Amino acid sequence: MTEINEPDTTQENVFVARQPIFDRSEKPWGYELLHRESATAMTANVTDDEAATRAVIADGVSLAMEGLPSERRRVLINFPEELLLTGAAFALPKDGCVVEILETVSPTPEVLDALKELKKAGYMLAMDDYCGETDLKPFLDIVDIVKVDILGLDNDPEKIKEVYAPLAVKNVITLAEKVEDNEIYTMLRDMGFDLFQGFFFSKPHIVPGKKLSSNQMSKLQLLRELGREDFELKEIANILKADPSLSFRLFRHINSVGFGLVNKVDTLDRAVVIMGQRAIAQWLRTAIMSDLNPAPKAGELVFLSVQRAKFLEMLAVHTGISTQTNPDSFFVIGLFSLLDSMLGIRMKELLENLPLNDTISCTLEGSCPEHTLLKLAHSFEHGYWADTDKRIKDLNIDRRTVDSLYVEARTWAQRALAG
């Protein structure tokens, strides 16, 4: 069984979630960094201590950017008024870091001067939660990105057009935030918005009558076989021998620096034995998931699924839930939890085509106690810190442990999907 390391609690960790921002081609453009400043913070409050906040933001940026390709290394970071006025943003690298002006900031002469200094230094500026407020219009002559709060405008096309129209003639990038579903996204894209952020990327776009393709079905069947406790390593090696792409990726994975092998592995049989039954099953599931849907947007869902899978697996061990249920089941739960969004097929129909054990099925459907771990993962990923802390308390697990496991899961996912 693969060892799960105890999190290091001797040092202060940085706790971040990141929400992707997509362009008009549904390719990831960058991320908004959602963070809280310490293991004891109940919200994402960054105004308590300037020096500590600088350190948190700087470390959080490094963590958020780790593993990202260069074309996506853009991170939006929320700044309240105090930190704008004290110049905390200058602690951040200007390449890839976007200073986001919180909606609570007023365009006073002092704030506008501070923003002009940032612009002069080469920083990109974004304005958060704009709904057409007259008193915020002085920001429009300075910022590079205007984030329009779609929910704040009640998803009303006429209200949105009224706010968008004057922005369209300005030299700014328009970003629609809080986009809840594909219907709203399509309407905003047709209207002319440049960038999009929200839950639309993780909510399934169901096409009536859509069926799984034979290629998708075979991959799901392979995933099902990998879920069997008695599968043979020799059989796995044979599967890999029939798939040159998977074989190449496995060699690249196992020969990476992370494994620390003295000699390169050059046979599939040896690669499979070195990794072991559980590790090879997890890696194969991850690789297969990344092949299910080649769309750019799906890549974010694959990363989130893999990160969530490892997070849930480790949570199951630390909460003791794994004493009744194999922790591997929670890896599968996390991995499959966004399949409906990736494939555009209802979860109920997927489960009918992919018979799983009762714990996995009822957790994915939300009808059993184990679903609470899935809810915790969802809260953390979206930066719902109050809800996250409530669920942590209900599970009677140390908050610092959960935060550390989340960071460890992200690192694991980045390595698993590298290249």
What is the topological layout?
Blueprint: E1 15-22, E2 28-36, H1 50-65, E3 75-79, H2 81-85, E4 97-101, H3 109-120, E5 124-130, E6 145-149, H4 157-168, E7 173-177, H5 182-191, E8 195-197, H6 214-226, H7 233-241, H8 244-254, H9 268-275, H10 277-292, H11 296-319, H12 327-336, H13 339-343, H14 347-353, H15 358-365, H16 371-381, H17 385-394, H18 399-416
Parallel strand pairs: 2-3, 3-4, 4-5, 5-6, 6-7, 7-8
Antiparallel strand pairs: 1-2, 1-8
Number of E-type strands: 8
Uncertain parts: 1-13, 37-53
CATH topology of the largest domain: Hypothetical protein af1432
The H/E string reads: EEHEHEHEEHEHEHHHHHHHHHHHHH
Number of H- or I-type helical stretches? 18
CATH superfamily of the largest domain: Hypothetical protein af1432
Strand order in the largest sheet: 1-2-3-4-5-6-7-8
What percentage of residues falls in helices of 4 or more residues?
A: 40-55%
The overall number of domains is: 2
Structural category is alpha/beta
CATH architecture group name of the largest domain: Orthogonal Bundle
What fraction of the residues are assigned to beta strands by DSSP?
5-15%
Biggest beta sheet attributes:
8 strands, mixed, barrel
